Structures are given as C-alpha cells and as structure tokens.
Automatic annotation (TrEMBL), chains A, B:
Residue ranges, annotated region (Disordered): 241-283
Domain CoA-binding: 89-190
The protein's name: Redox-sensing transcriptional repressor Rex
Protein encoded by which gene: rex
Alphabetized InterPro entries for the sequence: CoA-bd, NAD(P)-bd_dom_sf, Rex_actinobacterial-type, Rex_DNA-bd_C_dom, Tscrpt_rep_Rex, WH-like_DNA-bd_sf, WH_DNA-bd_sf
Lineage of producing organism: Bacteria, Bacillati, Actinomycetota, Actinomycetes, Kitasatosporales
Length: 283, 283
DNA sequence: GCATGTGAAACCATTCACAGCG
DNA sequence: CGCTGTGAATGGTTTCACATGC
C-alpha cells in the first residue's frame, strides 16, 4: 500500500468518490478566480471549461456534495467556494512541517499557494546542523532533533518529506510516531506506513517517464502508422542515446534453456525501427 | 494521478492501459534497486511489495507487456529492467528543457533522478534577463528569447514548466509551437493545448488539499461517533481560520427565495468537540 | 510444487441522455 | 426554455481464483 490508498476499506458507505475528491481542488481554484473577478454565478459548462473537465463529470461530482445549484441558472460562486472549502477541510487551517530543506524543500517553503489556501508552514526541519537557524522563506530552519516536539507543540498532522530518498522512510517513521497522519512525499521511495496514515506521492521522475512513454508512442505511430491522421510534427530526430551505466546490451532471458517469448521482443536497439508499440496479446 | 489526459480517445483499442503505464516506473525503480544488489530474480510477490502494490495487479500489468516471467521461478531482474525501460522509451535519452528557473526550477535542475533515467537537461530557460548566463546546476541559464532555437537545435520534445501561473499558458504555447509535444506542468493552472500534446500536471497545493480532506474525515470519524450524517450540528462557530480575504461568512444561497438543500450542510465548523489533535489555532 | 498468466467477477469512474425544476 | 441533478449505459481497473507450464 503506497500512494494515496483508499485510505480506508469503506468506512460504511457514505462518502465522496476518491476521483471526485481529487478534482475538488481544481474546481475550487477555478471558482476562486471567478470570485476574484466578482462573477456571481457560473454554469456547469463554463466552470467545467475553466477547470479543464467536461460538464457532465462536474455535475456528477457536485451531486455528491449536495444540490448546490439552481436549475436554469447555474451555481452561486461564493456559496460553492464555501461549500467546497468546507468539504475539503479548508475552513480550518492546517499546520504543516516540511522536512528536508534542500533545493526542493526551499522551493516548497517559498511556494505561495501553500500558505494561501488553508495551509500554514509551521516549521522547516533539516538534518544538517549547519542549516539550523538559517531563515528560509522567512522561517528559521530547525534541527531534526526538534521534530517530535515541533509536531506536538503545533498539533501538526500533515508532513511534507523533501529529503533524499535514503532518509525518507526514517523521517516518515518519526513523523508518524510523533502524530502525523498525512504525508506528502517528494522523495523517490515507496514509504511504508501503518494503517490510518495517508501518503501521497509526487515524483518528478515518474511523471517524466510516463510522458516519455506517450512520446515514444507518438513517434512510433507517426513513423509506421497508417492510423493517426495527421501529426503535428513529422518525426522527432532521435538523438543518440547515452545509457547511464554499462548495461547497454539487452540482457538475455537467462534461466535455463528456453527463451521467454516476449511480444515485440528485443533486438531493436535504442529504437531501431521497432515499428508499432509492440504490445499485443500473446499467442 | 495528475491531469494527464487520456491522450487520445482510444486510437484503436490496442495498447497498454494508462493505469499500468503509470505503474511501470514504479516497478522499474524497484527492479533497479534489486539489480544494484545483484539479485538475479524476483517473484511477483516480492517485487510487488517493493513497489508498493499487490501481486495480482503487478502480474496483470506485466501480462500486457508479454510473458517475461518463468513459472515456478519468477522474473529475471536484468531482463525485466530492460523490457520495461524499452517499453517506457528510456533506452533512448530525452532532451528536456526547464522553463522558469525560480526556486522550483532550480530544484528540478538539481534533481539527480532527472539525468539518471534517460532524461537530459538540454537547457534552462528564464524570462528574467538578469538570470541569463548564471549557472544553475552547472548549466547556464538562457533567455526565453532563445526558446524556439533551443527546442529546434536540440530536438526537444519534452518541456517542463516551472514558471508562475500567469506565464504558464503563454510559455506552453511557445513550447508547443516550437515542436514540444509533452509537457510537465508545475504551475497551478489548467493549460490548454492542441490535440496530440500530452500534459501532466504536478500541483503541490492540490495534493495538500486532498490530504486535508482525508485528514478532516479522520478527525470527524474519531469525534462524531457512528455516522456523520446528522445535519445541522448545533454548536460551533466556524473557527476564524485566517481566511485570506474578507469572505469569512459562509455565504448564503442567494438567488431568489428558496434555499438549496445541502447534504451535511454548514454549521459544522472544524468539528466541534474535535477529539483528535487539531492545532491550537491562533484565534 | 510453485509462481506465472489470465479469464471472469466485482468494483469504480465516466459518459449519456433526459426528467425535473426554477 | 435552460441548466441542474441523476438513473442507466458504458468503459476501464482491480481483484479473484485457478488452469498452465516450468
């Protein structure tokens, strides 16, 4: 159980679908922008466009919160802002600690959207004694020895981990032991936590890899595809590759004698022609 | 899961499910760790644990790639690393540009996992002329005027946006016009892009809000016994939680005469009796 | 014998399409 | 009449459980 789990087996029916919860902040942001421009009401269509979803989905999402719209008119912006804020728990503010004040931690501490929407940076914590006392984003960094007392004194229940991967699990354990029950993890590691603790993960490298997958697919289709009508750019000049270690050779099946029958099997170097994306049901 | 769209309606069936693609990087990381410890094979059970998923899911995921395991034995680590890398398109390297070298952009540029897994920072770009020439993570920042030629000269197809929200859409358009077809967006905005361009979004503030939702739910459950459905809780003046503007009052339905009937309607502040932790707020 | 690979079942999410109401 | 709210249809994902084959 890693990333944002269903957090709980289904504590008795009730409740907003996880996918909907994940979109509420999006709606809230769009609504806040409208509110700032003093727009009084919006239709599901307009709001959906602003939030980047389709209107049916938005209406379905809102239907889980209650009937907050007016038929034939739309939604009252201010009222909806309040209802969503309340649903997300943003009418109270949440003290947050950031552990690991390197480049990333500092960036997070400086991030404005942080403080503005119900969250307050209660403390910045780092293991490097040399950092202690140094102000980052106007807050003095504290040494990790203080972690437990900081959590307790401030009633912190949300922690952000921005440490190197190697330190993440240990920091996580200390946070949890001290009372934190929600963790936002920026370290590229799978954290293991006890039940009842939520972990969400933000991983740059994973996001890039997902993009690379689609990117490759586009290139492959463009090159060998009768499908996909027109592509924006013809083909990306496949720059030479530079694999990071010495394992540039495909690597053989191994085991014993028979070779596992891959689908679009190896042989194609960095890319060769490869053709389609391979993948296809096995025989 | 970020905003990564379905990239395409279903370009004709075939292909690996999106949910599976999103997990491949996770498996790859776990496998790489095993590889470094020279572990020759793993079972689906072991690998699943290391990646933080369950084994049935992992096997199903791998089944979309082909039959790369050996019954009764498990998977050959090296071979699987190669197959997944190839599937993700990591056997070639991808030049990436980062636009917006503020705190976050600098953190991204310094992020090690970046370069190590098939990605290469081809350029750092910023709109501030004063930044031009300044080295960040060993690379000289270039002015945004050079954006188009940098993209073209380096065959960049992946761009990372780390600018303030206000600049994001414009930067996005320039990137796309110059040939970028995959974008990783860190700015808190919904980007609109033409078909064929993939956007993935990483949004700190959204992640925190999702955590806050669950956090609130935990507190609510702990405090309000059996069921939260009781509408109109008597007490509780909603804590004056330092809302950022003057709109601290709930905001009324509005429209005309009738009040919309919410579900677990307002009135319930942070939670009342609280029970759980919950920060001593500054009044 | 044991772990993979996979149909089938269960589950969740999205989309459709329209009834219902201001 | 227009737009919300929602049952029903569709599509995708996860889980189960076991046949398959090393």
């Amino acid at each position: 159980m890693a990333t944002g789990r269903p957090h709980r087996p289904t504590t008795r029916g009730r409740g907003i679908p996880e996918a909907t919860v994940a979109r509420l902040p999006l709606y809230l942001r769009a609504l806040t922008a409208l509110s700032e421009r003093s727009v009084p009401t919006v239709s599901s269509e307009e709001l959906a466009t602003a939030a980047g979803v389709n209107s049916a989905k938005l209406r379905k999402d809102f239907s889980y919160l209650g009937s907050y719209g007016t038929r034939g008119v739309g939604y009252d912006v201010e009222y909806l802002v309040y209802q969503i804020s309340r649903e997300l728990g943003l009418t109270q503010d949440w003290p947050v600690v950031i552990v690991g004040i390197g480049n990333l931690g500092a960036a997070l501490a400086n991030y404005g959207g942080f403080a503005s929407r119900g969250f307050r940076v209660a403390a910045l914590i780092d293991a490097d004694a040399a950092m202690a006392g140094r102000p980052v984003a106007g807050i003095a960094v504290q040494h990790i020895d203080e972690l437990e007392s900081i959590i307790a004194d401030n009633g912190v229940s949300i922690g952000v981990i921005a440490t190197p991967a190697g330190a993440a699990q240990q920091v996580c354990e200390r946070l949890v032991a001290a009372g934190v029950t929600s963790i936002l993890n920026f370290a590229p590691t799978v954290l293991s936590v006890p039940d009842g603790v939520d972990v969400r993960k933000v991983d740059l490298s994973i996001e890039l890899q997902i993009l690379a997958f689609h990117e490759q697919r586009k290139a492959g289709e463009a090159a060998a595809g009768p499908d996909i009508t027109d592509m924006v750019t013809p083909v990306v000049p496949p720059v030479a590759a530079t694999r990071r270690r010495a394992d540039d050779v495909p690597a053989r099946p191994a085991v014993d004698g028979a070779v596992p029958h891959g689908v679009g099997d190896a042989g194609s170097g960095p890319d060769g022609s490869d053709g389609g994306r391979s993948a296809a049901m096995p025989a």
